[in-house]
Write the structure tokens for this entry.
Amino acid sequence: MCGIAGYIGINKIPKKYIDLGLKSLVQRGPDNQNKIEIKKKNLNILLLHSRLSIIDLKARSNQPFSKHGLKLIFNGEIYNYILLRNELKKRGYKFKTNSDTEVIISGFYEYGVNIFKKLKGMWSLAIWDNNDNELILSRDRFGEKPLYYYHENKDIFFGSQIKQIMNLSKKKFNINEKQIYNFLGLGYRSVEKYNLTFFKGIKKVPSGSYLKFKLGKIETKKYWTLQYKPNHKTDQKDIINNIRKKVVNAIDRVSVSDVPLTIMLSGGVDSSIILSALKKKVHTFSLIDKDKRYDESFLINKTVKLLKVKNTQINIKHEAPKKLLSKIQDFVDYNSMPMYTITSYVSSKLHNLINKKGFKVSISGIGADEIFTGYYQHTLHYLAELKNHKYFKENYYYWKKYIKKITRNPHLKNIQNFLKNKNYNKYIFDTNPEIFSLIDKKKMTPFKDKKFCQDALRNRMLNELLYETVPPVLNEDDQNHMYSSVENRSPYLDVDLVEYMNTVPTKFLINKGETKFLLKAAFKDIMPRHIFKNKIKRGFNASFDSIIDRNDKFFNKFLLDEKSPIYRYINFKRMLKIYKKKELSHSESMFFFRLLNCKIFLERFS
């Protein structure tokens, strides 16, 4: 895990800008920083790298890495690099390191851009091909590792964060107001949905894609796509057996490391299965919120005791307003964007503690909800798909008995919304009319699903996986882990597992109202029973009132400053009425965290 940045163009970047670029990467990779500058006719090439050593800790694997007339800077981990290295050895290649870095560069020399189809893992990378005078930028299939770029005329700037582009270019970028409106009104699900960033002109290399930059021109191509192609010849027993094998293989892959591992342990299914299936004892870390809506301490403590693992907990509590605002300001400056969710903020405390305890790698359950049906809405899309099927009546009974009573979202309590329109999606953004009325709807981008298939549940899950929930969570996860110099790994985003799950017919996904039925069934013998039986979904979550006292005068003076540029985007008087409520609903709590972050962002970058 590392940080990368660079520039290709006709200008020479001044040393002081290069130094700022490298300095901004230090937290992402404190173990080594280096650069390469190349002058080729009228072209200037600059590659910056900052290393967090995880595989082959020796200096021989430092980057930028040169071989075969290629220069590589790389952020991430390739989990199948040993298999690829052996394959390349059979083709006559020799290796001087034990790193995945050298495998990528030799693999690119042998296979060209087809190497990206062979890689299994997470990455953002840049390859300068001195033979063809060409730059290649690439990201992994799900976008676990971020990579931003800015293209102007014959120049391209790129980096793991927007900060590196700003430092190297020294340009003033204008705020993308459309993104502010979308984020405030539609929430974190909108942030990556429309391929926008919070600055005009700055883009992201799309996940599952590579970008070629040559002679000042950009060409972007997908190397991987995902489709729902059900195999109707399979049966439940085979599916469960295959899931067991593929999840275990994925966990084995992400556990490859030359440094100790940790697990982010919640009271949910996903992290508990990782912990139960991992073939080594690891230290676990957990967040505890005493708000009864989010408190999972009972489940976590039972799991820790049962599996006999070390567990370090952080109790979420009110912070001194100056301290909280200072921390958020630091994150906003570091990421050059607002923090998306309270979950992200409280999780950052855990990342910091992981670093202080001497760990460099953390494993979490990101992606399982979107692959195995982890959200309450999945049961409703499932019922809508089955409304004329023999399974409908039984599953409707269990939904009504178990799921309906524990959902807070009013849209998810009314099954008729989904039976009338199986692609119903207002529950995503229109959960609270009061909040939604604060923002001019005409300024927001219409919230539409990308069409993957006719199956409503699978189409929704693919939108969540590739556009709405997983991409923003991964972005936050990467940036906030790396703020504390910790690598994040997500075994459920294993390409073999995800592709296989998209061959499983929808009818098998939910059983008697039980979401994640197949995942639970695959690990029923080793998963803690109290986790297996629990039906309430909480995860790493907290409320606005858990982190700040809304009666604090200093905080209110800051947030409710009517002259702030944030109040050009929302109706101040209507907002104030909601803010003064004694208790905030979940949607209101999330909104005020977005509001706070957008206020800080606008005041620091406008």
Summary: The chain has 26 helices and 17 strands. The radius of gyration is 24 Å. The longest strand covers residues 32-40. The mean pLDDT is 92.
